Amino acid sequence: MNAPDYEYLRKLLKERSGLDLSADKQYLIESRLLPLARKAGLSGIPELVQKLQGGSSALITSVVEAMTTNETFFFRDKVPFDHFRDTIMPEILKARAGRRSVRIWCAAGSTGQEPYSLAMTLKEMSAALTGWRVEIIATDLSQEVLEKAKSGVYSQFEVQRGLPIQMLMKYFKQTGETWQVNPELRAMIQHRQLNLLQDFSHLGTFDVIFCRNVLIYFDQETKINIFNRLARQIEPDGFLVLGAAETVVGLTDTFRPIADRRGLYKPNDPRAAAARPAVEAPRMAAMAGR
After folding, report:
1. Domain parsing of the chain, residue ranges
2. Which of 94, 220, 247, 258 has its CB 3.0 to 4.6 Å from that of 264, i.e. a possible disulfide?
3. Residue 79 predicted with pLDDT over 80
4. Which residues pair with 211 in a beta bridge?
5. What φ, ψ does residue 45 adopt, rounded to 5°?
């Protein structure tokens, strides 16, 4: 791959997905895009770039999805789900006793393991949530992974990664070599295609936002922009959950860390967030359905 082609792809990926590749990641692009090029009947990366420059929107979407990391598994890292069960939901149950409803957003839901893990956790608390309206919104950039999430069908390998055997037997049905999440659990989650670089105010406000292991791929300006916009979508007493390698510290004052609760954050004064001017989001071509 020559330098101009690599720079073109770097710019395209940053504009479309926020992915910020360093100058030494040619191997990553080649390993992920060469199979895509050959599948499209192209000779290699140079011809792929020519097609992209010609404005093939379907091919652009395929390239972005091929470069998006969708590594996930049930109850990934465990600690955030312990926080959800032991810290977040007890506070929500008290604070929302009057309206008896809770809204949760998984901002990078990928193939569904995270939102289904939250749904299972809530099902295990069903006695305390009797009469409550529970809404889980799971969004992702990739339509392909959203379709898998909607189906709720996972391989034996996927259900063995992090999923306790008792929950597998309770909430899944085996069909041949695959397992499917039961209909009741699937009905708890709304899956929507969404690009975090674009406006997401239409989603409304949430009591809890899980935004884990996605911002690590963005540059600092993009992270700040997203944090500031997340602050406008979260209730004043709500919770933000980030990945273990992510933090708001040194980037924004819209959230503050909760002591002794790694990865867990509370919004600061919402009036300050509302008054703060928005950082202009990166310019992007419109993407259908996002």
Report:
1. 3-67, 79-275
2. 258
3. yes
4. 242
5. -60, -45
pLDDT tens-digit readout, 127-139: 999 999 999 999 9
- Looking from the CA of 39 toward its CB, the CA atoms found within 13 Å total 9
Burial (CB count <10 Å: 0-12, 13-18, 19+), residue 23: exposed
Q: Answer whether CATH 1.10.155.10 is correct for domain 3-67.
A: yes
pLDDT of residue 76: 92
Contacts of 123 (CB under 8 A, 6+ apart): 171, 185
The residues annotated as belonging to the active site are 32, 140
In this structure, what token pair is assigned to residue 118?
């939250």
CATH superfamily of 79-275: Vaccinia Virus protein VP39 (3.40.50.150)
CB neighbour list of residue 45: distance below 8 Å, 6 or more residues apart = 1, 5, 9, 29, 30, 33, 34, 37
Residues 6+ apart with CB under 8 A from 213: 71, 72, 76, 108, 243, 245, 246
HSE-up of residue 144 (Cα within 13 Å, Cβ side): 11
Tens digits of residue pLDDT in 158-184: 999 899 999 999 999 999 899 999 999
Query: Rounded to 5 degrees, what are φ and ψ at 215?
Result: -70, -15
- In angstroms, the Cα distances linking 96 to 210, 230, 241 are 19, 20, 19
Predicted confidence at residue 51, as pLDDT, reads: 84
- Res. 269 pLDDT band, cuts 50 70 90: low
How far apart CA 227 and CA 248 sit, in angstroms, is 8
